[in-house]
Each structure stands twice: as C-alpha cells, then as structure tokens.
C-alpha cells in the first residue's frame, strides 16, 4: 500500500515539474530596465532563477493564462497557477518586494485552487507594488484565510488595478483585491484607484476590496455579489480600521447561515473613517422558493441577515461623512439606513433605502449609544453617539410585530441628534428617538433643513430630496488624490443620485452598437450616458425632450474595449441604470 501511495505521489510531483516555467525575459530586473513579461511562461518564471521577488517587471502584452486550469495537477485535480511567493526565490525570499507595472494590459483566465493554503492570490504577500494592471476571469479558491485576487496579504502598493469577472472563495480575511491590508510602511503602502466586479464567498471579515483594512482605500468601485457565513461583511471592507474615501458599491450581500451579522454596504464593522461613499447594495435574505408565513417556517427555506445591518456600515464606531445609501435592506434586528448601530459620528449623510426588519430599526440608525471604557471596575464615558445634518427617506416594513422602531433612530441613549430629519409620510413612522419628522413635501424644501451648509448640499425645491453639491464632492476627492494619479482623483466620483421607482429601460451592446429602449409615462428631458467599470463617462447623448411612450435609440460603439459598462438614463433628473457586457 505504501508503494502504491509513493507511486502516485511521484506522478503528482512529475506533473507539477512538467508545468514549470521555461522562459527567458528581456531586461535585467532593474527599475530602469525591468524584466519584460511577454507571455504566460514569463509570468510563471517570476521567482525562478535570476527572476527574483525583489526585481522589477513590466507587461509587454495581454497575457492569456487559461492554461493554468490544467497545470500543477495530481491524479485528483489541478491546482493551477502557483502564487508568486508560494515558493522561495534564489535568495530564499517569499515576500514580493519588487514592482509589476501592467502598462494597462490584462491577465485573463488565471486559475488558483490550493484548498489548504492561506495567502492565496496572484501574489501571496505583497510588500512591493502592482500598478496599471487588469485581471479578467480570475478564480481563486481556498479553505483558508487571506484569500483574494491580487494579494493575500498587502503591505505595499496596489494602484490602478481592476478585476472583472472575478470569483474568490475563502474562509476568513477574504477580499476582492486583498485579503488583509496593513500599513507598516507609511511611504509605500496604498490601495488606490481599484475596482472589483464578480463574486465572493467567505466566512469572517469579507469585503469587495479587502477583508481587513488598517490603512487607506481611496477611489474604489465595487460590483459584487457576496455570500457570507458569519461576521463583518462589507461592500468594500469587512473590518475597517483605516480610511475609506470615495468608494462606490453595488450588488448584494446574501447570508449562507442564520448567524450573519455586522453587514454594511461599505463596511461591515468600522472604527475608522468612511467618507464620500455611496452604496446601492442589496443586503438581504438568501433566495427562497416559499412564502414566509412565520419566523420558524421562514428559516426552513432561507436565511436572513441576523443583526447589526446598515446601508453604509453594520456597526460604526468611527466616522461616516458625505455618504449615502440607496439599496434594499432586509434582516432581523439592529438595522439602519446608514448604520445598524452607531457609537461614533454620522454627519452630512442620507439614506433612501427600502428596509424590512423586526426589532430595533431606524431609518438612519437602528441603535445609537455612547462609548465607554472599563477602568478599575467602573465605566468611563469616552464619547457620545452622534448624528448631525443627515436625513432618512425610506420605505419601512415591520415584520412579526417587531418593536423599537423609529423614523430616524430606533433606540438611543447617551447620544445627540442635531438638525436631522426623516420622511414620516414615506416611512409611515411618526416617532423616533431623535430627529424631526417631516412630510414628503417638507423634505423637498430648503427651509426645512435648519443649519445645513449650502456649500455641501444641493436643494431642488419641490422636486427632490437634498443631494450633495457636486463641486464640493469633487473638491473633497481631489484633496485625497495622489500626485501621480493622471485622473486627478476622478476615477470613481461618488455622484448623488435620486433613484426612481418602477421604470422601463433596457440597454445592450452588440455588433458595434449601443442599443437602448425606454418607455416614459409623460414628456420629459432625456439624457443617456455610458460609464465604464471605474465610473468614468465614456459616452454621453443628450436626447432632448421626448414625448410619452416607447423609444428606441442606437449609438456607435466601435472603439469600446471589451468589458463591463453601465448605461445610465436620466429622465427629468431621475436616474435609471443597467449593466452591459461587451465580449
């Protein structure tokens, strides 16, 4: 029996060795003359022979890595591409401290599946930099932690890196771009101008960009469907201990168990800063094939998000500012349009969400309280939970006769609430533990919002709720942009939007043309825009005033690169959005 096992083990080793890279790259690996990656064989050579982890590399072409699905196989399965750093280089190092400049090329079809290995990604541990690189159809699967597309563990620079059609599956610390992102090098570490589009599955600390972040994430765009098992799940970061500035998320977070908690459209759990962020994520129950008639029967066919659920953050112990949520939220308890629970500060923010919950639910915050420190068997109050110059305009549906509901705040103690409001007519909530209830008409009057800064807010009297002043937001984003950012911080500008209700709008790209079809109930001024995955406007068409009825338009799209786009239809200021894929 031992001889048979040895025979199969030898076969496995031979299979892995047979797939070893055989490449000769141009260059010398210096910053002035980096090694040139021309094909997949070159990519696999990083870490072998003279190709050290401390060297500089540059992509000279798009790389087709689809052969990785048949590589590094034993007699059971194929493990795919061996992450950079999985094996030691000639100097005995495993951390990648060099540089990879993708020159905006794309690595497609990369497959990585080492179930028992942690730090699973294109690069296991990144202390150097990866810039100007795209990944398409990347799949990373592990049963362990620190799993992501680009870096399992990041203490370096990832800038202008974008992932489309990603599939990431891991246990703890799972992210679309990085599993864990820390910053012990204040000069080099940055996660800037990034995007992720695809699917993610994980247990604890799961995020569309990073599972855990202790540093700054700036200009991030996410379109993700996350399936979660336990705690701290966020559209951008699961556990945020740093700063998230200018982030946009869309997609969904769906529970795989009945114990999923600390869930947010931007961050699941945050003790840092969330600034200039927008989420249209749906935070909801898992798919069901039965009608929910009672709590016991409901859990038989689907799981609901358990508690601490917010449109921006599940639990906020830090600061949320200049941010808004417009998605759907469905859970059990401690639910808010911005934060499920808040022991920090929320200011200049708003929620226009659809909320379904049971207990401790607020249009803006479900539960708000001060923070305390235990010292010598006594509690010392160190801060108040605070809400300032913010509002909620939500639809709110109470399930199973749930209690502790409020139009703005569900339950509050040791907190302050200044110049903040909720739409009592839309929500059906007449009371709140803070704030002032207004009618829908009053919510659209500038005079109702006492003490609000018109440099920050924009008012369209009698038509819409307040939104952010675009010039102010653009200025704030520019303040956080890097000196070497050619877009000057405009990669993912978080624009204020008022999302209307039911509509008829379809769009697609085929045969070099953009085709849109829309129906409007009355005459309106119509504008169509095409945005790329980074939120940049690619094409704009002012269609002018259109009569009521069905309309069909065609535009040229011959020069578009392949990838995902978003068609945005603006009808008298109301925005409708559809995703499109150019293959």
Search tags:
51 strands; 583 residues; disordered N terminus; Immunoglobulin-like; 7% helix; ten-stranded parallel beta sheet; Pectate Lyase C-like; mainly beta; 3 domains
Helix and strand layout, with pairings?
Layout (H helix, E strand, L loop, with lengths): L1 H17 L16 E3 L2 H5 L11 E4 L3 E2 L34 E10 L2 E3 L9 E4 L2 E8 L2 E3 L9 E4 L2 E13 L2 E4 L2 E4 L8 E13 L1 E4 L2 E4 L2 E13 L2 E4 L2 E4 L2 E13 L5 E4 L2 E4 L2 E7 L2 E2 L11 H7 L3 E6 L2 E4 L2 E7 L2 E9 L2 E4 L2 E7 L2 E4 L1 E4 L2 E4 L2 E5 L2 E6 L1 E4 L2 E2 L2 E4 L6 E2 L2 E4 L2 E4 L2 E3 H4 L8 E3 L18 E2 L8 E2 L1 H10 L24 E7 L2 E8 L3 E9 L4 E10 L2 E8 L6 E9 L2 E9 L1
Parallel strand pairs: 1-2, 2-4, 3-4, 4-7, 5-8, 6-9, 7-10, 8-10, 9-12, 10-13, 11-14, 12-15, 13-16, 14-17, 15-18, 16-19, 17-20, 18-21, 19-22, 19-23, 20-24, 21-25, 22-26, 24-27, 25-28, 26-29, 27-30, 27-31, 28-32, 29-35, 29-36, 30-37, 31-38, 32-39, 35-40, 36-41, 41-42
Antiparallel strand pairs: 33-34, 43-44, 45-46, 46-49, 47-48, 47-50, 50-51
């Amino acid at each position: 029996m031992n001889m048979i096992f040895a025979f199969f083990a030898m076969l496995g080793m031979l299979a892995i060795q047979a797939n070893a890279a055989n490449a000769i790259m141009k260059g010398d690996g210096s910053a002035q003359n980096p090694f040139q990656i021309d094909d997949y064989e070159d990519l696999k050579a990083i870490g072998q022979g003279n190709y050290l982890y401390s060297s500089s590399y540059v992509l000279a072409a798009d790389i087709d890595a689809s052969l990785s699905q048949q590589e590094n196989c034993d007699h059971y399965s194929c493990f795919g591409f061996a992450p950079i750093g999985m094996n030691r280089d000639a100097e005995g190092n495993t951390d990648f401290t060099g540089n990879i400049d993708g020159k905006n090329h794309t690595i497609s079809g990369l497959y990585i599946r080492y179930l028992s290995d942690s730090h699973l990604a294109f690069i296991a541990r990144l202390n150097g930099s990866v810039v100007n690189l795209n990944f398409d159809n990347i799949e990373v699967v592990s049963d362990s932690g620190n799993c992501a597309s680009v870096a399992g563990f990041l203490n370096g620079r990832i800038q202008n890196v974008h992932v489309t059609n990603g599939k990431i599956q891991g246990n703890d610390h799972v992210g679309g771009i990085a599993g864990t992102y820390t910053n012990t090098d204040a000069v080099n570490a940055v996660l800037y101008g990034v995007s992720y589009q695809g699917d993610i599955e994980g247990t604890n600390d799961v995020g569309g960009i990073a599972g855990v972040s202790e540093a700054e994430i700036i200009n991030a765009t996410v379109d993700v469907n996350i399936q979660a098992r336990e705690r701290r799940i966020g559209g951008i970061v699961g556990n945020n201990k740093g700063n998230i500035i200018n982030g946009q998320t869309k997609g969904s977070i769906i529970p795989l168990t009945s114990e999923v908690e600390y869930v947010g459209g931007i961050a699941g759990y945050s003790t840092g800063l969330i600034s200039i962020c927008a989420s249209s994520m749906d935070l909801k129950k898992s798919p069901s094939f039965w009608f929910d008639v009672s709590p016991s029967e409901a859990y038989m066919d689907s799981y609901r998000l358990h508690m601490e659920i917010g449109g921006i953050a599940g639990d906020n112990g830090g600061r949320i500012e200049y941010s808004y949520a417009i998605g759907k939220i469905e859970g059990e308890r401690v639910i808010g349009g911005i934060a499920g629970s808040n022991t920090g500060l929320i200011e200049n923010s708003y929620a226009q969400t659809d909320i379904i919950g049971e207990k401790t639910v607020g249009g803006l915050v479900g539960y708000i309280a001060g923070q305390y420190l235990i010292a010598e068997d006594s509690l010392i109050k160190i801060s108040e939970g605070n809400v300032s110059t913010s509002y909620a305009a939500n639809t709110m549906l109470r399930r199973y006769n749930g209690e502790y509901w409020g139009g703005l705040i569900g339950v509050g103690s040791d907190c302050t609430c200044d110049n903040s409001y909720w739409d009592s007519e839309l929500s059906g909530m007449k009371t709140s533990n803070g704030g002032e209830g207004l009618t829908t008409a009053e919510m659209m009057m500038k005079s109702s919002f006492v003490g609000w800064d018109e440099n920050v807010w924009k008012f369209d009297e009698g038509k819409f709720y307040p939104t952010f002043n675009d010039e102010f937001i653009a200025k704030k984003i520019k303040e956080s942009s890097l000196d070497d950012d050619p877009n000057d911080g405009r990669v993912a500008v978080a624009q204020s939007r008022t999302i209307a209700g039911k509509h008829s709008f379809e769009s697609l790209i085929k045969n070099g043309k953009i085709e849109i079809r829309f129906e409007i109930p009355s005459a309106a001024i119509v504008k169509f825009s095409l945005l790329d995955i980074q939120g940049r406007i690619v094409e704009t068409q002012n269609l002018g005033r259109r009569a009521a009825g069905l309309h069909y338009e065609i535009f040229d799209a011959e020069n578009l690169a392949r990838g995902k786009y978003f068609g945005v239809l603006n009808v008298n200021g109301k925005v409708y959005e559809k995703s499109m894929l150019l293959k």
